[in-house]
Write a structure and sequence with these properties.
Blueprint (H helix, E strand, L loop, with lengths): L5 H29 E11 L6 H5 L6 E2 L5 E4 L4 E10 L5 E8 L5 E8 L2 E7 L16 E6 L3 E10 L4 E8 L1 H36 L2 H21 L1 H5 L8 H23 L2 H4 L1 H20 L5 H17 L1 H11 L3 H8 L3 H13 L8 H43 L3 H34 L1 H20 L5 H28 L8 E4 H15 L4 E5 L6 E4 L1 H17 L6 E8 L5 E7 L31 H11 L3 E7 L3 E8 L1
Parallel strand pairs: 12-14
Antiparallel strand pairs: 1-2, 1-4, 3-10, 4-9, 5-8, 5-10, 6-7, 6-9, 11-13, 14-15, 15-17, 16-17
Length: 650
């Protein structure tokens, strides 16, 4: 084939590949539209003893239901769901059928195959390892031939609230949804654990047990939430399904047990309401008995009793107790009339709605209401505890002031004199701060004069050998260090105050790097400097002032930490994304990678610096300049061999 026809052939092949990819994408996009649930119907089996053959023979009366979330309440009956799934496509497919929430106890899928009912069991009554796919909710695989309709029977029975929402998932969608939910729950768990550690720290430092108890309540509430959602089943006892059902009531009872204890600490009931305080102790003990009872007694009636008892003792008593505490002077309106029990109240609202004691609530309301209640309760408790600490400090200050009022007039006069002296001292300290700020700016003029004098002396030294050239060189290096230090201080101050605006312009990289390298040669005459611009573009859109400062800091860093005679190379490249890369490499002592994570911190210096002077701001400023350009900095080092700093500029 001739070279003339090669481009035409390449275009044809490329077009065919693009067409194939387009067809595949369209097929994947249309797969969800060709597979769908065409009919849903529901029936109740009060005896809970019928099998799929009895159901197929018409022993139950099915009624059609619409897709979506449906609460069936709590019942000893078994519920049968008849599902028709249609594959209107021309290719076989496999989907995942999700039946309901994670806490459903028994879920059994029946599929008629050549007159035989094939059975697949699931739910929390089965070990987690026996599930077809490791998701929190029970999912069954459904295989569909082209252009066919398949009828499935699903039996659901549970001692918990029964909520179903039959729907189909592709494998990718199912795993994506599972990962999203799991990440959200683990993020919440991380926040609760941090809150618990915070509570322990506050308890240790301030001797305030309310913080610690708040963390424990949050932890128990999280475990209760995990028990409902099935995360505790998967993470803690995957091969012990018998723990799944009791854990829901157990952790919920622990929350109820800790709330009266929280009342005693936050609302100060032992001090203000001794009789009510004894009743709170009784309430806490009763919830502890509930927690034990969930391991020995039937779940559903005990859960109903726990909910009613919680309604009477926590939901209704807490606002009254908060109001009375506010009348006694408890901060933040008696913790906003004890509305920090809002998560408990919202949970009971959702529970009573799910079992039919209250009107049904939208499914989207559940998560939003619980999240909002948790946030409100956390803010109220933390704000109240902070206000309580401030109030204690204020009361202590008032007590000291009353004691001072009983002293003699001479002591009061002396106190006023000391107060005036303190104000004078604070004013002097503020003047000192302003003076230091002025000095940092005024030093530039004499340093610049000294640098100019050095330049003049160096010119004369070339003609007069009697002039001390090494001393002049030392003075020059000292002035350059002072100038660099003042520049870094100014740049750091402007960056911290966010007053520095990046001014990008098209800059020729070669002259810029040559100029920076010439300055570095004066600072490190004993080093060898090389400039490698082979892979660098001719121009780049950067802020030349900031880039000069950045490169100067990197080169000064290389000069400091590499012995005389070593080679220092500055070069760069362009990455596949079109971002400019600048590199500074030296043959110094290198870095230990354990230092790399905090090397770019403010005022941080390496561990192997020896007697080398410095402030620890250079690499911090380099990183900030790189970030202002939309990039970042990284380091690669071989201890004892070399170190390479790599800056990316977007």
């Amino acid at each position: 084939m001739s070279a003339r026809n090669a481009p035409v052939l390449n275009m044809l092949v490329g077009s065919l590949v693009a067409l194939c990819m387009l067809c595949c994408t369209a097929a994947l996009a249309g797969e969800r539209e060709t597979v769908a649930i065409t009919q849903l119907s529901l029936a109740q089996d009060p005896s809970a003893e019928l099998g799929p053959g009895d159901v197929a023979a018409g022993r139950l009366d099915f009624s059609r239901i619409s897709p979506g979330r449906r609460s069936l309440g709590t019942s000893d009956s078994a519920f049968w769901v008849r599902i028709e799934v249609r594959n209107a496509g021309s290719a076989p497919t496999s989907q995942w059928l999700e039946v309901g929430q994670a806490r459903l106890h028994e879920i059994t899928l029946y599929e008629n195959h050549n007159g035989q009912w094939l059975e697949r069991r699931g739910g929390t009554s089965q070990p987690f390892s026996q599930r077809e796919v490791p998701t929190l909710t029970q999912n069954f695989s459904v295989d569909l031939a082209p252009d066919t309709t398949k009828e499935l029977l699903v039996r659901v029975a549970s001692n918990t609230v029964i909520i179903i929402h039959p729907r189909l998932w592709s494998t990718a969608e199912l795993l994506r949804e599972e990962n999203r939910n799991t990440q959200l729950e683990f993020f919440t768990a991380g926040a609760v654990v941090l809150m618990l550690f915070f509570g322990v720290a506050m308890w240790v430092m301030l001797r305030e047990p309310g913080f610690l108890l708040f963390g424990l309540v949050s932890l128990c509430f999280l475990l209760f939430r995990w028990s409902i959602k099935g995360i505790a089943f998967r993470e803690f006892w995957p091969d012990s399904p018998e723990w799944t059902l009791p854990s829901i009531g157990f952790f919920w009872s622990l929350v109820g047990m800790l709330i009266p204890v929280l009342h005693r600490i936050l609302l100060q009931t032992p001090r203000h309401f001794p009789r009510i305080d004894r009743f709170l102790v009784f309430i806490a003990a009763s919830f502890a008995l509930f927690a034990v009872g969930f391991f020995f007694l039937p779940h559903r009636p005990l859960m109903h009793a726990l909910s009613v008892w919680g309604l009477l003792t926590i939901c209704l008593l807490s606002p009254i107790l908060g109001y009375l505490a506010w009348r006694k002077g408890v901060v933040l309106w008696g913790y906003a009339f004890a509305s920090y029990v809002l998560p408990w109240q919202v949970t009971l609202l959702l529970y009573f709605s799910s079992i039919g004691w209250l009107p049904s609530l939208p499914g989207a309301f559940t998560e939003h209401a619980m999240a909002g209640a948790t946030v409100v309760a956390s803010v109220i408790i933390l704000s109240g505890l902070a206000a309580r600490i401030l109030q204690a400090q204020k009361e202590k200050a008032d007590s000291k002031r009353k004691q001072r009022q009983t002293l003699e007039a001479q002591v009061r006069d002396r106190t006023r004199e000391l107060e005036r002296a303190r104000e004078v001292a604070e004013g002097a300290l503020e003047d000192n701060r302003q003076f230091l700020a002025m000095i940092s700016h005024e030093l530039r003029s004499p340093v610049a004069s000294a640098s100019s004098a050095c330049t003049l002396l160096e010119t004369r030294a070339e003609q007069d050998p009697n002039l001390p050239g090494p001393i002049i060189e030392r003075i020059r290096r000292a002035t350059e260090r002072i100038t660099a230090f003042l520049d870094n201080l100014l740049v750091e101050d402007q960056m911290e105050s966010e007053s520095w605006k990046v001014t990008r312009q098209d800059v020729s990289l070669g002259p810029l790097l040559e100029d920076v390298l010439d300055q570095a040669r004066q600072s490190g005459p004993g080093h060898g400097f090389e400039l490698n611009t082979e892979r660098l573009p001719d121009t780049a859109r950067i802020d030349p002032v900031l880039i000069r400062i950045m490169l100067r800091n990197l080169l000064e860093n290389a000069i400091k930490y590499s012995p005389p005679g070593c080679r220092i190379v500055i070069g760069g490249d362009v990455d596949p994304s079109g971002h400019l890369i600048l590199e500074v490499a030296d043959e110094g002592s290198g870095l230990d990678y354990s230092q790399a994570s905090h090397l770019f911190g403010k005022y941080v210096r390496g561990q192997n610096i020896g007697t080398v002077s410095g402030t620890g701001m250079g690499l911090y400023i380099v990183q900030r300049i790189a970030q202002l350009h939309g990039g970042d900095i990284s380091v690669r080092s071989n201890p004892g061999v070399n170190t390479i700093f790599r800056v990316t500029i977007a």
